[in-house]
């Protein structure tokens, strides 16, 4: 049987940038890594509330931490006069249990949420939790993605669909989806939907075309 590889991990360092960028000595590496995991985990709790599509962490030589949050609702996170952002920054810093950390959060708006695999997967999950049809939810996501400029999209929903006794997987694929090609700009995300019949798994692949050497993108 063939082995499945995460499309994002397959491309990190080649056509995708890493989510965390920093260097540390051996005695500090473990602490920095654990802090990053706590930051990612805490912010993930707000992914639906703030429509968070991606998170990146950067550290400099002085250990100043810059967290970039890509959101489709930047105004909700920032708030009036950056009030909400300041409170959110304190909560994120508290979650790491490192009071000496110099933490800054930068909010970057997502222009086209329909092309962000994580947001599309969460949108499908919300509809399934609201008892919408899993077929209609996937087809609508595919239609919106192509309108936004996607070159291809693949969706998959697995579990006890419509409450049947035996779990199965159903999905749709439209457009180009060259998962084996590294230069293919593929965004992948997976999430779960907690329904009355059990937990459903949702996976989304979105192709944005090919990246060639020398492209400004």
Give structural notes.
This protein is of the alpha/beta class and 217 residues long. The model has no long low-confidence stretch (mean pLDDT 91). It has helices at 7-11, 26-44, 74-78, 83-96, 117-129, 134-147, and strands at residues 20-21, 52-59, 64-71, 102-109, 152-159, 168-175, 184-195, 198-210.
What's this, in brief?
32% of the residues lie in helices and 31% in strands. With 217 residues, it is of the alpha/beta class. The longest helix is centred in the first third of the chain and has 19 residues, at 26-44.
Topology:
Elements: H1 7-11, E1 20-21, H2 26-44, E2 52-59, E3 64-71, H3 74-78, H4 83-96, E4 102-109, H5 117-129, H6 134-147, E5 152-159, E6 168-175, E7 184-195, E8 198-210
Parallel strand pairs: 1-2, 3-4
Antiparallel strand pairs: 2-3, 5-6, 5-8, 7-8
Rounded mean pLDDT is: 91
Largest sheet, spatial ordering of strands: 1-2-3-4
Structure class: alpha/beta
Low-confidence stretches: none
Query: Can you count the beta strands?
Result: 8
Largest sheet: 4 strands, mixed
- With helices defined by DSSP (H or I, 4 residues minimum), what is the helix count? 6
Radius of gyration: 19 Å
Shape summary? globular
SSE string: HEHEEHHEHHEEEE
Q: Separation of termini? A: 36 Å
Strand content: 25-35%
How much helix is in the residues? 25-40%
